[in-house]
Amino acid sequence: CVPWQSQTSGQYQRRVHGDKNELSELSDFPVMGSLETLWINNNKFSDLMALLHKVNELFPNLIYLSLLRNPICPQLYFEAGHEEQYRRYRSSVITRLPGLMFLDAIQISDVERAHAARAGEFLTSVARVAEKEYNKVEDDPQEDLDALKHQHVETNQKPSAYLGRGKIKYDGKQSEGNRFIGNDAL
Fold first, then answer.
1. What burial class does residue 94 get, using C-beta atoms within 10 Å of its C-beta: 0-12 exposed, 13-18 middle, 19+ buried?
2. DSSP alpha helices (H): ranges in the chain?
């Protein structure tokens, strides 16, 4: 039994730390109108838009959200080269959760809010093609990939998306805990 399931009401719960629970969705969470802090790092969330929709629905007064070490969160702290992806991710989250003050232990600045208001809703990932629709396609996917590669070579453009999977190791030695959250905000 997970701690939030054993409670009869999430009415007065202010913080939930659900790190390292192999969560992939929030279906077991009740509506918690008083929840301000949600730490769900190191889980298995893979659909950012679905998660943000559920967070908005279940936790309307959320101020602090941390999603580090989930497939939906670019690994800014743990791997080099993800700065732009992480900025796009932050803008997307800020647009959909406008009441947030901190995301991934970093305070949301006025500049970030302005950027998110301007472009955040356009910085989402393209939804995956449904498996049934994908199976209907009779073309050779390798031909499509080769054509796409040649298109970028001919126009001298860099591809706008990268797919990859790397090995991630986190031992917690450099963890700074809640260093970025001041006592006045707790």
1. buried
2. 3-6, 48-58, 83-96, 110-119, 131-136, 141-155
| pLDDT tens digits in sequence order for the chain, 186 residues long | 344 444 445 557 899 999 999 999 998 899 999 999 999 999 999 999 999 999 999 999 999 999 999 999 887 665 667 788 888 899 999 999 999 999 998 999 999 999 888 886 666 544 333 444 444 445 555 565 565 555 545 555 554 444 445 555 555 555 556 556 666 665
Q: How far is CA 94 from CA 21, 46, 132, in A?
A: 25, 18, 33
Taking the mean position of all CA atoms in its chain, how far away is CA 24? Answer: 12
The single-letter code of the amino acid at 85 is Q
Prediction pTM value: 0.61
- Closest-CA residue to 71 (of 116, 40, 37): 40
Q: Strand 37-39 to strand 106-107: parallel, antiparallel, or no bridges (unpaired)?
A: unpaired
Report the alpha-carbon distance of residue 85 to residue 186 in Å, rounded.
Answer: 29
Q: Which two tokens stand for residue 146?
A: 């080769």
Q: Which amino acid is at 101?
A: M
